[in-house]
Amino acid sequence: MNLDYAGLFHALRPETSLVVGALIILGLDLSIFRRHTPVERLNLALWIGALAVLAAAAHVWFAPEGPVFGGVLILDKLAMATRLGVLGLTLLTFGVASAAPAPRNPAEQVAIILFATTGFLLMAAAQQLLLAFLALELASLSLYVLAGFDKTRPESAEAALKYFLFGGMAAAFLLFGFSLIYGLTGSIELPQIAGQLFHVTLSPLLVVALVMVLVAFGFKAAAAPFHLWAPDVYEGAPTSSAALIASASKLAGFTLFARLFWREFGAVAGSVSSAHGEPGWLPAVAVIAAVSMLIGNFGALAQSNVRRLLAYSAIAHAGNLLLGVIAAGDAGPAPFYYYAATYGLATVGAFGVIAVAERAGPCQKITDLAGLHRRSPLLAGCLAVFVLSLAGIPPLAGFFGKFTVFSAALQMGGLAGPAGWLAMLAIALSALALYYYLVILKQALVAKPAPDAAPIAVPAIAKLALVLAAGLIVLFGVNPSLLLGLF
Amino acid sequence: MIHATLHAYVALSAALFAIGLLGVLIRRNTLVVFMCLELMLVASTLGLVAFSRFNGTDDGNVFVFFILTVAAAEVAVGLAIIVALFRKRQTIQVDELNTLKH
Predict the structure, then answer these.
(1) Which of A:139-158 have CB within 8 Å of B?
(2) Across the interface, do A172 and B41 touch by the CB < 8 Å criterion?
C-alpha cells in the first residue's frame, strides 16, 4: 500500500479548512467576543464559518482527481459534485441559522455545523469501510447535538434523544454488517472487497451482512419502514438543524450509499429490470423504495403540522432517491445526484421560510402560514418556488430531477420489470403529492391572515439566502446541464 | 489449552448483538436502552477481532481502536442529551416521551 502522507494532506485541504474555521470560531468566541451579545457572536461565527466553507469549496474545485492514500479516499466526479453540493447547502443553512433567534451558545452551533459538514465531505469520498464508518459517525454525532441544541424547549431534547437512539441503532447495524463483510472478504477496502465478492455466491452470511448494512442506511436516509424518527426530529429540532438534517445529510448519505453498494456489492446486485429478477440487494432496495413512497405520500396527506408534512415528504423523496440509486448501475450517478442536490435546495429553502416566519410568531401548523402573501410577499414567493419544486412542477429543478430519475429507471427494462413498475408508482404518487403541497400554498398565497398577524420583516442575510436558493432552483430547472455537466 | 473456533466467536458476537437489540426494543428506561446500544457495538468489535485473527490481517484490530473511540464520543453525546432531557421533563422513561405527536 502506497502511503503518501503529503498527498493525503493535500487531498484533505477542504476538511482542514472547515475544522480550522470551527476552531477559530470557538477560540475567538471564548476570548475576544465573550462579552458581546449572542446576536453579535452568532453573526461573527456565521461570517467566519461562511469563509471556511468558501475556502473548502475552492479547494474542492481545484483538487486533482484520483485515488488518495492507497485508495482510502477516491476523488472522482461524484465525490467532487457531492462535496460542492454539500458545501453549498451548508452555506444556505447558515442563512437559515442567521434568521433564527440566536441560541445561548451561538459559536458552538456554527462550529458543530462545520464539523458535521466535515463528516459529509469525507462521506462523499470514502472508499474504505473504516473511513466510511468514521465519517458517518462524525456527521451523525454532530447532528444529534444540533437536533438538541435549543435547550429552552423540551421538544428539542426529545427530538435529539429519538434521533440519537435510532441513529445509534443504525450505527450498530452498520458496524455488524461491516464486521461480517470483513470476515467474508478479509479486507476493508471497497475495490478489494468487490474483487473478492466476484468469486463468492450469495451465502447466508453475506445476505445477513447485506441486510444489516441496508437497514442501517434505511435508518439514516429515513426510508420506510425505518422512518419513525424523521417526523419527530423535523418537528422538534431547531429549524436550522432540521434544514441541515434534511438536505446536506441526505445528499452525502445517498452518495455514500450508492458508492458502497455499487462499488462494493456490485457483483451481488441482482436484477430488477425484468419480472424474473435475480436475487441480490437491488430487489430489497426496490421494496424499501416502494414502501417509502407509499408511507411518505399517504402519511403527508394527514398532516396538519408543516414540519411533519415536510418530514413525510422527505420520506417519499427518499423512496424516489432509492429508485435513482437503483438506476445508477446503468445510468451512472448523475440522475440521483441531481435529484438529491435540488431536493436539498428546496428543503433548505422551505425551512428558511419557516425560520423567518417564526420571528413573528410560532410556525408549526400549516395554518400558521395563513396570509403569508400579505405579511411578506417575498417569503410567499420563495415558498411557492420551493414547494412547487418539491412537487415537481416544470420549469423548476424538482421537475427535471423527477424526470431524469424516472426516465433512467424506465430505461432499465421498460415496464417489463420492477424498476419500471416502481417508476410508474412514483409518477402516480407524485400526482397525489401535489395535493398536500398545494394545501401549504393555499394557506400561504390565498388564505387571509389572522387579524392579529403582523407583517414579517426579513433580515438581509436570510433574504439573500432565500432568493439565492429560489434562483438556483429556477436556474438548474431551466438549464439542468449546469449540474449534470459536473459529471 | 482449548482453542475456540471462528464459529464460536461469530456465534458469541451474534448472540451479544441479538441481546443488545432485544434490550433496545423492549426496555423502557433510556439509560438501559443506551447500555444495550453499547452492547451492540461491542458485539461487532468482538467479531472484528476474531475475523482479524483468523484472516491474518490487521485491519480488523485497527478498526476496533477507532470503534472504541467513537463509542466513547457516542456515550458523551448520548448522556448529554439524556441530562438535557431530564432537566426539562424530569423523566427518562421512553413511554413518557410523547410531546411530539401528530
Answers:
(1) 141, 144-145, 148, 151, 153-155, 157-158
(2) yes
Calculate the alpha carbon distances from B30 to A227, A255, B82, B85, B96 in Å: 20, 32, 8, 11, 11
For the record, the C-alpha cell of A8 comes out as 493525503
- Cell digits of residue A375: 405579511
- What domains lie within chain B, and their CATH numbers? 28-93 (1.10.287.3510)
* Tens digit of each residue's pLDDT (9 = 90 or more) over A373-402: 999 999 999 999 999 999 999 889 999 999
Q: Which residue has the higher pLDDT, A65 or A88?
A: A88
- Which member of B41, B57, B100 has the closest CB to residue A175? B41
Chain B residues inside the 8 Å CB shell of A161? 30, 81-82, 85, 97
By the 8 A CB rule, do A344 and A250 touch?
A: yes
**Residue appearing with cell numbers 411578506:** A376
3-state class (DSSP) for residue B1: coil
* Domain boundary assignment for chain A: 1-249, 269-487
> What are A75's strand-pairing partners?
A66
* Cα(A188)–Cα(B73) distance, integer angstroms: 23
Angle, helices A106-125/A129-147, rounded to nearest 10 degrees: 150
d(CA A284, CA A383): 36
ipTM: 0.95
Are B89 and A236 a contacting pair at CB < 8 A?
A: no
* pLDDT digits 0-9 by tens, B46-90: 999 999 998 888 899 999 999 999 999 999 999 999 999 999 888
Three-state DSSP class for A198? coil
Q: Which of A29, A20, A17 is nearest to A106 (CA)?
A: A29
**Chain A closest-CA separation from residue B97 CA (Å):** 7
Q: How far apart are CA A172 and CA A175, in angstroms?
A: 5
Cβ contact A11:A75 at 8 Å? yes
Burial class (CB in 10 A: 0-12, 13-18, 19+), B53: middle
Report how far residue A373's alpha carbon sits from residue A391's, in angstroms, rounded to the nearest whole number: 20
Partner-chain residue, chosen from A130, A137, A231, that has the shortest CB–CB distance to B63: A130
CA distance A402 to A111: 34
Chain A residues 277-306 within an 8 A CB cutoff of chain B: 302-305
CA angle A455, A93, A463 (to 5 degrees): 35
